[in-house]
Amino acid sequence: MKPIQGLIKAAHNAGVAQSTMDLVHLRASQVNGCGACVVSGALSAKKAGETDERLFSVVAWREAPYFTDAERAALALAEPATRLSDRADPVPDEIWDEAVRHYDESQLVGLVLWIATTNLQPRERHHPPDRGRRPVTRGPG
Known about the structure:
AhpD-like
């Protein structure tokens, strides 16, 4: 656990606003389907002063009016960085380029490290094993 705490500390010391880090954690947790992470992340952000409107809107950040361009760039980065195996081009250049417009190298390292740390949870937590259940099928008609 000590090495993971070191990663978390390094990510948070990279110069990205805590509110942005909280939003990124929440979005990555939503994308990877970790219910416990979503709840704890939202509660932590709320305790730190985040508004309900912003917390409720993270899932629809593209359409919501509550986020800065820099926050949108970080949220955009969180999605493909959370789902790296879903595409041949995991983080498209346009998403990375937009993040580069808003964050310096140290901050980008912090964001990527924070996203990766958020996604370190055991795979089983996000995608429970089948446990021998058979899929439900319907017969004809």
